[in-house]
Amino acid sequence: MEEAEMATESRGTEGGTRPKVTITAIAQEAGVSVPTVSRVVNGRSDVSPETRARVEDLLRIHGYRRRQSAPGDRAALVDLVFNDLDSPWAVEIIRGVEEIAHRDGVGTVVSAIHGRAGSARQWLKNLRARASDGVILVTSVLEPVVHEELRRLNVPIVVVDPAGSPALEAPTIGATNWAGGMAATEHLLSLGHRRIGLIAGPARLLCSRARLDGHRAALEAAGVPFDPALVAQGDFYHESGFHGCDQLMDSDSPPTAIFASSDQMALGAIEALRRRGLRVPEDVSIVGFDDLPEVRWSAPPLTTVRQPLADMGKLAARTVLRQARGEEIESPRVELATQLVVRASTAPPTEG
Amino acid sequence: MEEAEMATESRGTEGGTRPKVTITAIAQEAGVSVPTVSRVVNGRSDVSPETRARVEDLLRIHGYRRRQSAPGDRAALVDLVFNDLDSPWAVEIIRGVEEIAHRDGVGTVVSAIHGRAGSARQWLKNLRARASDGVILVTSVLEPVVHEELRRLNVPIVVVDPAGSPALEAPTIGATNWAGGMAATEHLLSLGHRRIGLIAGPARLLCSRARLDGHRAALEAAGVPFDPALVAQGDFYHESGFHGCDQLMDSDSPPTAIFASSDQMALGAIEALRRRGLRVPEDVSIVGFDDLPEVRWSAPPLTTVRQPLADMGKLAARTVLRQARGEEIESPRVELATQLVVRASTAPPTEG
C-alpha cells in the first residue's frame, strides 16, 4: 500500500508547477510516521483529528496536492454541490456539468447539503473517504468551518453564481445579473410602461441585488423615479411571486407591469393575476428571469431574461477539470451574458 | 498492490452468501496470471479485451463480486443513469436517490447517455475505471451490447420505471401507471365528461401503454365506448401536448376534457387551448400525470396524477445499496402508488 501511495505522489509532483515535496519530508516535519501521512493523503479515517489537521496544514503549506495531473491517479470524479435539489434550474446546471465531465471520462457526483452544517459535514466525510478531482459549489452558503475543511482538503473548487461575498479563494462563474435586470426593465419601458413593479430575490444573495440594481438603473436612465412601494420581497420560489404580486396589485397605485426576478416567481405572479381575473399581458405585463425550459410553455409563454445555466455548468466543469490538471485559470471571475427573450407575457399598457 | 487486492477479495467473500472463490482459482481456470485477474477485478485498462472478457465471464460464473459487503472496499458511489437530463422530473429522482445515498456516506454519480451507444460505452468505460457500488438506470433503453457489458461488470443494478420488457435481470421500481390512468379518467367521468381525449406517451414505453389501458378501463367500466379518434400520440414533452391537443380539438366532435399522460404535455395542451381562445377548465378540462412541483403554479394549477418520483428514487437507492451489501431483495418488481391530485384545471362540462 505505502509503495503505491509514494508512487502516486512522485508522479503527481513531477508534472505539476508546485515545488517538489515528499511524504517523507512532511512526516518528519509533522513528527509522525510516513504511513500516517499516507493515511491522511488517502483520506482514511484511522488518524486522530489533531494529527490529521497538522498533516493537512503541512501538505497545504508545501503545496502538496492530493490529486494530481497524472492520469493514473485521478479520482475521475467531480463533485457538484447544491444547497437543495428542489428547482428545475438545478437540472440545467447538472446537464452542463455532466456533458463536459462525461466526455472527459469523469463522473459527476451530485449532492445536496440543505444549508445544514450536519449535512455539509457528512458530505465532506464522504468526499474525504473517496476522493474527488474538484468541487463545484452552486450558490452554496457554507459555514466557515466547512470552508476551512475544504481548504484543508486542497481540492480545486469553483463556485457557480456566488451567493454572497465569496469567502473561498476560488474562481467564480456567474451570469450578468445586473445587465439582465436592466434589459428586463428597459423592455417594459420601451413598451410604454412607467409603473413597473419588481419582485426581488433574497436580499442575502448578490445576484438578487445585481438584478435589482439593473432594474433601478434602467428606470433612472429613462427618467422614471424609483418607487420603493413598487418593490416586493420574494425568495425566488413560486409562492413568494404569488404573494409579491398580490402585494403590488393591492397598493394604491398598482403597476401595469412586473419584473419578477426569477421565472418561478413570474409563474406565481401570473397565477395571482389569474385569480384576480386579470389577464397577462392585456392587463399586466410580466417579465421573468432564468428562462427555464418550461416557461416556453407557460400560459402565456413567458418573456424572460435567459440565464445560460447549462453553459455556466459547462464552464464550471471545464474550469475545475483544468485546475485538477494543474493548469492556470485566466480569470478568477467570469460572468456569462444574459439575454432578453421576448414571448407572449408582455405588451404595451392598456392606458397609455 | 496485489496483496491489497487479495485481501479485498477474501474479506469480501467471507461475509457474502456466494461460494468462496479465489483469484488464484480464477487465474488457473482462465490460464492467466494472478496479477492479470487482479487488474481485471480492479478495472484497470492494461488487459487485452479478450483476456478481460474471459476473466470477467469466469468471475461472473463463480459468483465473484467486485464490490463486497466489507465497509473498507466499498466504492462509496452509486451511479444514476438517465437517457437525457432534460426534464424537471429528473431532478425529483436525483433528489430521492441523493437523500438516501448521502445518509449512507455514498456519492451519487449522475450520467446521461442520450440513448446513444457511443455515450453509453463512454459511461461504461468511466464506470470501469473508477468502480461503483451499484447502478440505477432510469427508463433507459440500452443496447444489447451494453446490457452484456453491465452483466460482465457484475455490479448491482436497479431499473426505475422500465421502458420496455426489462432485458436485464434486475429489480425494477415503477409507479402504478395503470391505476393512475384509470383514476385520471374516472375523475373526468365523475364530473360528467363523456367525450374524453387522451394524449398518449411514446408507444415503446410500457408506462405509456399502462396509462392508456387504465384510461380505457375507466371508460369501459362507465359504459363509455373507447373512440380511437380521441387518442393523439405524444412523446411526453410539451410540444407534443400542444400539437396533440390541437389535433383533438380539430376533430369533428372535439372532447370536453383531455387526459394528457404527462404534466409537460398537459401544459402544452393548456397553451394550445389558450391560443384558440378556450379557457381551462370552463371550456375544456385537463388532467396531467406526474405532479411536477411547478404544476401547482401553472395557470390554472393542474389537476394531475401524482407519481412519487422522489420516493421511487429513494427506494431505488435503498435497493441497490442493499444489493451491494449482499442482502436479498424481497420483490424483483415494485410499483409505488400514484394518487389523483385535484386542483383547478378540471370542472364539469359546460353543456350537460
3D structure, described in words:
The structure is a homodimer. Chain A folds into three domains: about 1-60, 434 Repressor (Amino-terminal Domain) (Orthogonal Bundle); about 75-175 and about 310-335, Rossmann fold, CATH 3.40.50.2300; about 175-310, Response regulator (Rossmann fold, 3-Layer(aba) Sandwich). Chain A is about 45% helix and about 15% strand. Chain A has helices spanning about 1-15, 25-30, 35-40, 50-60, 90-105, 115-130, 145-155, 175-190, 205-220, 240-250, 265-275, 310-325, and strands at about 75-80, 105-110, 135-140, 155-160, 170-175, 195-200, 230-235, 255-260, 285-290, 305, 335, 340. At the A-B interface, helix 5, strand 2, helix 6 and helix 11 of A face helix 5, strand 2, helix 6 and helix 11 of B. Strand 2 (about 105-110) of chain A pairs antiparallel with strand 2 (about 105-110) of chain B.
Low-pLDDT segments of chain A = 1-19, 67-72
Number of helices of chain A: 12
Name the CATH class of the largest domain in chain A.
Alpha Beta
Q: What average pLDDT do the residues of chain A reach?
A: 85
Q: Could you estimate the helical fraction of the residues of chain A in percent?
A: 40-55%
Shape field of chain A: elongated
Please trace the helix and strand order of chain A, writing H or E for each element. Answer: HHHHEHEHEHEEHEHEHEHEEHEE
Beta content of chain A comes to 15-25%
What is the CA–CA distance across the termini of chain A?
78 Å
* Shape-level CATH architecture of the largest domain in chain A: 3-Layer(aba) Sandwich
Number of distinct beta strands of chain A = 12
